[in-house]
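Changelog-linked ticket: WQD example.
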Amino acid sequence: MILVTGGAGYIGSHTVVELLNENYDVVILDNFVNSSPSVIDKIELITNKKIKFYEGNVLDRKVLNEIFNDNEVSDVIHFAGLKSVSESLIKPYDYYNNNVTGTLTLVNEMVLNNVNNLIFSSSATVYGKPQEIPLTESCHIGETTNPYGTSKFVAEKMLTDISSANLKFNVTLLRYFNPVGAHPSGMIGESPKGIPNNLVPYLTKVARGQLECLSVFGSDYPTKDGTGIRDFIHVMDLAMGHVAALRNRKPERNLNIYNLGTGKGYTVLELINAFERITGVKVNYRLSDRRDGDIAECWSDPSLARNELGWEASRSLDDMLRDVWNWENTKSNY
Ligand code: WQD
C-alpha cells in the first residue's frame, strides 16, 4: 500500500488518480490546509475506486503510527507541505516547521515502523539562481532565495544524510519544475486559496474576470522577448513521474534524484499568447517591474529520468492550457 501525504492537494490528488489507475492501493493523509475533503470524492468519481484517508498533519506522530499500524504501507510519497514563495517570506517558522520538521517526523516514524521507501516532493527552487541552463541533477543547489526554497533544500540535505547513514532507507528526490494544468475530466485541478502567486492560476482568474489585470513581472530579462522563461510541465505528466519512480527504484543506490520537467522553456508572453490562441479569450495584462527573488530562466535537462525511470513528459503547453481552462470552466459544476 502507498501512503500519500498531501494526497488531496494539487499534485498529490493527480498522483493518487494515476496510482489507482495503475492498481496500487492508496491511503491518504491530509490536513486540508490547502485542499478540501471534496477532492477525495472527486478522485473516487474519476477512478471509480474507494480511498482510505486520514485527516491530520505529518507532525502528528500519533496519526502516523495509527496509519502504519492499520495498513501494510510499503512506500510513502510525501507531498504534504506549504508551497507559497511569497507566504514563506511572511511566515518562515510555519514553512520550516511543516516542511522540515514535518519531513523529519515522518521519516522517524517510517523507520520505527520498518517502512523504508520514501519519494519526496522537491522543487527546482533548490537550484536557486542557475549557474548553467538547462539544469541537470548535478547542478549546484542551495543558493535559495526564500524560506520555501530553503525548506526544500534543507529537507533534501536531511534525507541525503539519513540515506547515507541508513542503507536500508531508500530516498527518491523529485525536483518539479513549473506544474500546470489539470486532469482532463475537469474534476480536479489547482485551486489555491486566496490570491494566486503563480502565473497560470492568476492568469485564469484574470481571463474569467475575477481579477482585473495580470502583471507580467519583468520585460527586461535577457530572453527572446524580455520576459521570464520557465519549464512548464503538465500535472498529469508529473503524476506519472511518481508512478515511474515507484516502479523503477534503483536498488543499487538508496538515494536517487530526478528532475521532472519537459526540457523546454517558454516565456511568460509565449504562455499568454498560447492561452489566448487556445481559448479565444483575451488576457488583460501589463508589463511590470521584476518580482523580487525571480530568476530570468529556469528549465530542466530531464534525460536522467528518461534513461533511468523510462519516464518523459508527453503533454504540450497547449495541452496544459486547454486542460486548465477546462478545469476553470468545469469545477463549479461539482
Ligand atoms: C513563473 C513566471 C514570474 C506570476 C514557483 C516556485 C516553484 C514552484 C512553482 C512549488 C515567472 C512570472 C508569475 C504573475 C508573472 N512552486 N509571473 N506574473 O516563481 O517560477 O516558481 O512556483 O513547488 O517552487 O518557486 O512560478 O508561476 O510564480 O512564476 O509574470 O502574476 O511567471 O515572474 O517568470 P516560479 P510562478
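Closing comment: Example verified and attached. The longest helix spans residues 92-112. The chain is about 40% helix and 15% strand.
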